Amino acid sequence: MVRPYLIGALLAQQSAGPAGIDGFLPFGRGSLMLDVVFLTMFVIVPLLLFSLWQVKYRRNYQLHKALQLTMAIVLLVAVVLFEVDIRFNGWVHRAEPSPYFDAANKWSCLAGRALIVHLSFAVPTLVLWIVVVVQALRKFSRPPSPGPHSAWHARWATLAAGGMFMTAVTGWIFYWLAFVATK
Ligand code: HEM
Fold first, then answer.
1. How much helix, strand and coil, in percent to the nearest 5, is found in the chain?
2. Global confidence as pTM
3. Which of 59, 68, 155 to mutate to test the pocket of ligand 1 (most atoms within 8 A of CB)?
4. How many Cβ atoms are within 10 Å of 25's Cβ, its own excluded?
5. Cβ neighbours of residue 143 under 8 Å, at least 6 residues apart?
6. Model confidence over 65-119: pLDDT tens digits?
7. Does the C-beta of 89 come closer than 6 Å to ligand 1?
């Protein structure tokens, strides 16, 4: 018979101390998924610029669509895995060696403020990104070409692209403040 107190003891042991899988970046204390997302953004930002250049100056709508859908899928998978990692394992213990983090003032220390700035870009951008992709799939012709949806798409997709750029930059800053800088 499985004794409930044994399971309790096991769970308590698991949540004590640094939890989660360590990342692979040699200069940081990030978890595996923190490091994956940190690096992914270095691929997404140039790819996003390339995709916008393709649509604006080359009028290669099909390539733009393929690139945007690939990015949307990669980002969605990364964000889901990242959320699972952070919800289960937390990040505070990884930030504690930083001079910019103070567990007693989690949201008012510099790293905490940087995280608030980052989240205020990341959360609206995630919603906007999904809306822009879904609307583009519904309203552009197949294969994609300019049409009645163009003006709406140009306005909101430019905002979504700007939001993604700011999400990346503020995310990199938070990563450095919390997981690279050391007392
Ligand atoms: C979040 C994802 C996306 C972003 C950030 C994005 C970004 C942009 C931007 C900024 C433009 C305007 C370029 C300019 O100034 O001329 C544009 C144009 C365009 N996009 Fe997207 N796009 C996304 C997804 C998609 C998807 C999924 C499709 C196809 C289903 C698509 C099809 C087009 C087309 C056809 C145009 C040309 C519109 C025109 O010039 O009249 N886009 N996109």
1. 75, 0, 25
2. 0.90
3. 68
4. 16
5. 61, 62, 65
6. 999 999 999 999 999 999 999 999 999 999 999 999 999 999 999 999 999 999 9
7. no
